[in-house]
Amino acid sequence: MNTTPSQQPKAVVLLSGGLDSATTLAIARAEGFACHALSIDYGQRHAAELEAARRVAARLGAVQHLVIPLDLSAIGGSALTDPDIPVPETPTSGIPPTYVPARNTVFLALALGWAEVLGAHDIFVGVNAVDYSGYPDCRPEYIEAFQRLANLATREGVEGEGFRIRAPLIGLRKEEIIRRGTALGVDYSLTVSCYQADEAGRACGRCDSCRLRAAGFRRAGLPDPTRYRETPATE
Amino acid sequence: MNTTPSQQPKAVVLLSGGLDSATTLAIARAEGFACHALSIDYGQRHAAELEAARRVAARLGAVQHLVIPLDLSAIGGSALTDPDIPVPETPTSGIPPTYVPARNTVFLALALGWAEVLGAHDIFVGVNAVDYSGYPDCRPEYIEAFQRLANLATREGVEGEGFRIRAPLIGLRKEEIIRRGTALGVDYSLTVSCYQADEAGRACGRCDSCRLRAAGFRRAGLPDPTRYRETPATE
């Protein structure tokens, strides 16, 4: 990069601390954006993700990392926000109980508000519609609908250049995401994807997110740097 | 109403504590919904609105009132969330500084998540595109775009009956809103619309919201029950 931070266009990057969002941040940086990372402390089971997000933001050169507290357990309805709903440890059919109602819509709305204040036109989100858990708010038609909404919702959309919702992973398989991130220097040992990581960030190796991640490293032919509490389940 | 609460369909109603959202709640109740009122404690200047929301929810028979804390001052960019940006006391042109970036998108997203958990298909919001402040996220095309998004974003939208975003005030003038609410028994003395109400909920009488509200009562030919700190500015 030859540009100084002040010359770079700004982007807001939603950063969970998991593998996908870390890769997305690396892609946004490689495209030349000054990246403003946004994490939401939403009462997730896997609070170790937020620590991971802090490490990833620092390591990958985000110019700022904002963590907004928003307790979605007041709404509940998900294994990730309601301790009475267990995280499945075997594959499920349909949309799984780890689906958090309207989560990406809430997160993208907050990213949109921040982008408008910062003067950023690009909002990056690490959703993926290939090796994913079947969440409706990870599909291309959802991302397109949010971009349309964003440009109707805001002063910038009405009077200015508007917003682009960038989902660079949306059509990639997990192993392709891992290869791309590895090429960009992402240290995946910093990331936490597990739905029920312990306080130290060690993964269960059994939830859907762990299974997808482990299979991705295997198929990419790369060593899996994930720290597990015990030996992970094989596929 | 002859139905018991358990037979009534549920609705989520966004309730700010102002005149419009109180009227919207009364309309939803009159349509026979069991109303789950949702307020967001977003760091607004006019925190007296939240107290008003509690009074209105109780008086108009909401079956539940949820207040979710979400500090939008972390994002800033509005006279309502950043104390360094003054609330205008004379009319402005264009979208005014009281515009809060992506506010309605954030609020509707939270309402959507809660509606999905409750099993509600109707989400009521008191936006108005006639006597309003020119906010982009109060226009019919915005509401239509959000409804479309809602039905792509959620399990219920993909697998079920889906969601309707109901904005019953969107085409009404302020005096029509006040007449409608008065006919439905809304006690507007409970509501607070002022952008800079004091802790006791007394209005400034000078901000855009106060002007629109005062003119509405005048044009409706109804006494204005608003409690002012001093004599309001005339139009």
Largest β-sheet summary of chain A: 5 strands, parallel
Show the largest interface.
A-B, 44 and 45 residues
Read across the widest sheet of chain A, the strand sequence of neighbours is 3-2-1-4-5
The gyration radius over C-alpha positions of chain A equals 17 Å
The CATH architecture assignment of chain A turns out to be 3-Layer(aba) Sandwich
Class by helix and strand content of chain A? Answer: alpha/beta
CATH class (first level) name of chain A: Alpha Beta
Low-confidence stretches of chain A: none
Task: Tell me what you see in this structure.
The structure is a homodimer. Chain A is an alpha/beta fold. In chain A, helix 1 crosses helix 6 and helix 6 crosses helix 7. Chain A has one domain: HUPs (Rossmann fold), CATH 3.40.50. Chain A is about 35% helix and about 10% strand. The model of chain A has no long low-confidence stretch (mean pLDDT about 90). Chain A has seven helices and five strands. Chains A and B meet through strand 3, helix 3, helix 4 and helix 5 of A and strand 3, helix 3, helix 4 and helix 5 of B.
Give me a quick take on this structure:
Chain A is of the alpha/beta class. Chain A contains seven helices and five strands, in the order βαβαβαβααβαα.
Question: Keywords, please?
Answer:
homodimer; 235 residues; alpha/beta; 5 strands; 11% strand
List the helices and strands and how they pair.
The structure is a homodimer of 235-residue chains.
Chain A: E1 10-14, H1 19-30, E2 34-41, H2 48-59, E3 64-69, H3 103-118, E4 122-124, H4 140-153, H5 155-159, E5 164-166, H6 174-183, H7 208-220
Parallel strand pairs in A: 1-2, 1-4, 2-3, 4-5
